# Entry
Amino acid sequence: MILYYYAKTKSRQSKLMTPGMELRTEILSVRRSNVSNARNKELFSRGNNDEGPLAAPTASSSIGRASSLFKRHNVTSSFSACLKQQDPSQNHAYGEHLEYVTVFDDEDEYDAARSTWNHAKLHLQFPNIIAFPASAEEVSLVVKCTRLSGQYICARNGKHSFESDTCTYGVVVDVSKMKQITTLDGRLEGKESPVVRLGAGLTLGQVAVEVVKLGLVVPMGSCATVGLTGLTLVGGQGPLSRLYGMLSDYVSAIELIDERAQIVLATASNEYADYLWLARGGGSGTHHFPGIITAIELSGLPSSESSSSDTKSYIDFRIEYNPTVENAVQMLSDWQKLHMDPKYINDPLFNRITMEPWIFVDAAKKGYGWKKKVFLTVYFYGTAKHRSDFRSRYMPMLKIIFTGTTKAKITNWQYHTSIGFQRYLAGVKSNKKLASGKHGWNINDRWKGYSAVVSKAVSNKAFRILAEGILESQPMSKRYVELKPLGGEIKKMDKSETAFSHRDALWWSLTNHFFPDDINMTSTHADSIRTESRRHHQSFVDAMGGSFSGYYAGYIDRGSSNTLHPSRRELELYYGGNARRIKSIKTKRDPQNLFRVYIPEALSHSVKQGSVALSGAVQAEY
Ligand SMILES: Cc1cc2nc3c(=O)[nH]c(=O)nc-3n(C[C@H](O)[C@H](O)[C@H](O)COP(=O)(O)OP(=O)(O)OC[C@H]3O[C@@H](n4cnc5c(N)ncnc54)[C@H](O)[C@@H]3O)c2cc1C
# Structure
């Protein structure tokens, strides 16, 4: 296990420290010999009796610069002391050996370790400790020492949270080293497909590469670098969701470390069933899951419909419009009508089609002007018979609806194998790259995103506000909106069966406003982008009236109403009728709110205001 400890580097120290203070960055590498799981579980659960109460937070706005730095030093020291105390080499009964290596003052490694995908809050992200455990037992040790050193803890997987939700001043547990994939033959009884056990640290690209080899399909998101666990915790929607449902619909068990540092397997029928229910779409966003998930079991996964790995069962193409507001409104309106027409939505073949409208603007890199685009991406998945039916039954109709009046053009028609489709979505050429945790798109790394979930038809007036806010804006960077069709298989599960509640939704939108590359995130310019983007989104939501039914936790917006402490109404917007149960499980399983983002009070105030102007006291936390 590798642990990065926070400390000032020399340049930062010289600005903030009083003379004579000395802090250091330690990278502590712990190597562990193999010990059987059963043995470890027994030993670790036995070691759980000496828990003390969670100590006070590590920093607050009221403490002065020097004392705050000393506090950080104290908590990391006591964390480190705890680890050493638990060192199995001190206790031969464990039969293990831990080796510590200490490295000083490596700012680059710390910076790389603390970065999340969205850099918009990087200036607020300075965890005390970042741990990279390789097993459930190591996670248990970290949870235990976090408690004993009086800190807060949160997990991260693919680092794609829209609000950098692993940005904490406490302990971050990065599960990315936990990537094992096994099929559990012993539990096949009564199942049509094997139970697949996946390490919590996998990204979607890594899952795709491995699961295709098993001849199975995992209905998951479209971005290869998103984390499997993070996606499960919000529900998990993607190009196959209308055909097969949400990713979290297939989760049959999870392994986690609870607040007492115990390793727990939660299934639908044991005493930990509430953890499993919560993890299926209600486990992150407005709050943190009450534990660290170390493995996820999927069952009932559909078999691949490709007769061989060379079969090109995916079709994709675009319908491209002249990028005007009129055309954008027409596209959205036609697309929405299609997804409400009983003639189509009751046809199983229609669930194999996924159409996603996009409206996009980007400031030209050189010179003056903006690149604008209005288009529909269309994906189809199925056997040779399905593909032939799609071409004969749906293509003529799609041409009439979408290209008839607007003169839009069909472009980019392609066929893909299963894994080829995943590579295409990720913008990479090889499976190695797909599994690397990176993708091929050049994506700006700082943005503010918003979602809107819709259950009834939206008026053209609202679509116009949406389209104008993109196409008639003159941003210094990029902004876009994409709409995702829902319904189909997603709708078939009861709303209370899992924590994911948007079962009746027609579609949801995701609007992203990007910050220019060279912007200072604490400037008034950055603030004006935040304010303007929120105003645009709010006017879209207001224009939708009763058609608006909430937000998607996957595109969490902590917003101007600080959802670090969400009200009941805010929770209901994300989780509908499941909000109350979600809250009660979190309170019961994590009574001291150990698993959370911890941002010092004054900083959380700044986040609340959407502003990052820092007071003197807050700067002391850096
Ligand atoms: C570029 C991009 C594309 C996206 N595409 C899609 C899409 O196609 N479909 C869709 O539904 N969503 C999509 N999302 C949203 C995404 O699913 C959510 O943001 C998701 O929560 C990210 O998970 P992560 O593991 O990558 O992020 P992280 O930031 O690592 O984690 C997200 C949340 O999950 C918690 N968490 C992570 N691991 C654990 C663990 N082991 N135990 C307990 N809690 C844990 C974190 O604490 C945090 O609260 C996309 C996001 C981005 C940025």
